[in-house]
Design goal:
By secondary structure, this protein is an all-alpha fold. The chain is built from 48 helices and no strands.
Amino acid sequence: MTRPKKRFSQLVEEIDRTPWGPAEQALVAEAVALAQEIGDEQLEYQARMRQTASANMNGATDVMLNSFAWCLARHDADPGRFPADLEYGGADLMWQFKWMASSLRSSPAFSQEQIAAVLDDMETHYRAADLGLSGVLTARFEDAWDAGRLDDAEALRVQLEATPRDDHSHCDACGRSQFAGFFAETDRDADAIRLVEEMIEGGFSCGEEPEHALSRVLVPYLRSGRGDDAKTAHLRSYRLAKDNPDNLRIVANNIVFTAITGNEARALSLVERHIGWLAHDGLNVDAHFAALAAFAVALDRVAATGHGETPVRGADAAALVPFFGAHDGTWSAADLAAAAWATAERLGAEFDRRDGTDGHARTLERMRALGGESYDVPIRSDAFVAQPATVDPTDADGWYERAMQLAQYGDEQGTLAALPHALDVTDPEKRAHLLSMRLGILVALDRAEEAWPLLPERVAALRAAGKAEQADLEERLGLATFGLATPENATALDRELADGAALPAWSRGDLALSRASLHLRGDDADADAALNLAEQAARAFAEADDARLSNTTTLVAISALLHKGDTEAASALLDRLIAQDDLSTGHRAHALETRARIRGGGGDFAEGAADADEVCRLVAGLGATRALGSAHLLAGSLWEDAGEPEKAVARFRVLARIAAQEGADATGADFRMARAMLAAGDAEEAAELFGSVLEREEKAEVEPASRAATAMLLARSLATAGEFGQAVGAYGYAADLFGQGEEFADQASAMSEQAKILARFDENDDALALLESAADIVRRAPDAVGVMADVLHNLGQAYGGRGDERAFALFDEVTALATEHEADWLRADVTDSRGRALAQLGRIDESVAAALTAADAFATIGDVGSAGGSELFAARVLVSNERGSDAVAVYRSAIEHGAEFPQLRQVAALELGDVLEGLGRHDEAAEVRALVES
């Protein structure tokens, strides 16, 4: 068993390398408890110093205040045993002092005198320790600003800017963010934007930066007419802030942004996602005030768009009663907006009484005014779904018609839901139809045990409708005519068909249709037999003058043709069926959906998507919510395959919203929507949504390889959005997950993408190490030829760039793969890479020969742009080795190949002009340079 002090040392080491969050908090709490158990106050001091910082970052204000007070008392009593700076890389005791006044100010439970005493005590400690006063001035500035004493705050800001920076000054990120927020609040938008852009361009970051700073300039960006910059800032800020409840203010700023930019559905979604954070830190009342005002603005805008009655999920939690009061049932957006305003006003008044100002009242005035501003900055991750313009039937006959249409479409669950409303019909024939639907659906759902008790009721309804022969037939056959597939039922149907000449036409049709359907079930399906029986049923139903069952029979025949693989005949029959005037809405939707799938399977994606869109319209009219989601899934998938991601996004959004409304899992819909967003060029929005999907998959403990696929797309989205640091981490996480799932080719591919980003930022040693590992891993998946070629090629290029001879064996291996699999472009590309590696080794003639060979190969397969690129490289190699005259012809060929590539043509012409000038061929130089201007 590990000794207590050794365990304590292990805990401290683990705390120092664990990111802020629940896991780190648990480690800190364990360290404090262990130190107390050991009875060593110096060890407890080490643990509590870390606890103060942890509580500050995680929004545990009460823990932070208690921990800091304990540490300060020990330090004041014996600074030798309890030094201010433990030199472990975290905030020292004097730095932590800066958090104290701010924390007290965040709750009106603490008086102004208490806050002033902390500030004075802080200054006393700083002066006693001979520290610079930048940290003290910062704390006093924050105090004046938060209290609404803006003139005092401005004077302190000016004084602070004139004060030399020291070890306790705010960092480059936090200092700029703080002043940016103050400038934004005091109508100096340009100054606020300047500071934040300095931070971003300088790469400055800290615990809650840059997300806090970005949230502070969202409105300044909008007011400056920079909507695209505001959108980018919002997406990045929210993505970085959304997982830590201590970031409530940051999220509040982002919610207001979505509310005033026409993204009310997104605003509602964010309110629902974060409303529970109000209960996270009971002492951070000022953050509650800010969040409540933001929620109120957002919900007012939701109501203004006509969605005031929309329920706000999560608002009825017991933990939120102190904020909104008791409420019967769910909160609507309009009602919750009023409650949020009321609580924000109450809290603001408490703060203003404490501070002796009207600072919080002015804040609410600004928020109400801001709620009236409008900007057009569309974000497509959320949208209100227009409810289908359907009205539920008012009587049993109306429900009968709806159930019939839903059954004809094939919506089993929707039909079952409609049937209880319809069974009060007085017409016995209609009742018999309804019971037939229920029996058929129960059998199809493998619930035959529920169907058997209903059969006598169905037989009685048939007799009441005057269909004694059909009643007798069903008494003999049981559930055979309702799809119960057993050998005995098949034999019984065959017997009745053989002996059924005297039966009514409708009964003969029912027997033939039932037997045809059984022929299409199971592994031994007989499509030809089913087709013959469908034709027999069609003749019988025509004789009985039953158009509904005639059309049902046609759909069964189409299914038989598809079982045979005869899509051409099936499509022709579908076209004729859809053209019929007597086709019901349900049957038409069924037929169109079948044609959509056939067209999609045949590569006619746009035509199939158009059919699926029509299915959506028809199904919406039937009031079939779940089926409407499935129809939108089909339409979105087909539009995605058709290369129309914008249209796919719209369909998947409806699917996701329907899933949410039905209480179903929207993860799959959101994944598809994010993928379509990425294809449409909305990388920032896609990254946010992929991140959300991945979180849900983690909680659901989805298998590693599936999570890895999501993480891979998240990484690609982040890289496309320019978030390369996060992309590297996401690719690394994807690689780890693929490894857990033993998907070695995908693991190697993720590592290769990670290496490309590292190399882009000159982290070449790390990139090379990743590629070497990826090359070892990909060889465990020999069938993944494309990935293997890509990884080995990338590693060869990395070696080549270093002048490492190992590159050529890899190039040989990739060339062999390209030749074996007739990958002509890859063979040309690796030849180009060989030429570049040879140049690094000073093997000039071989390098030029390889590059020109690559150029010829590219040109042969029609890629003249790449051909020109290889020639440009060859020409540059020649020029750099004082062989300008040899380079002239190569440059000219590159210019010729660059005719459709302006940048290539321009660069080649300018460089050739310089070469010709150096050779004394001035007229030719002028002629070539003229190409640049043409």
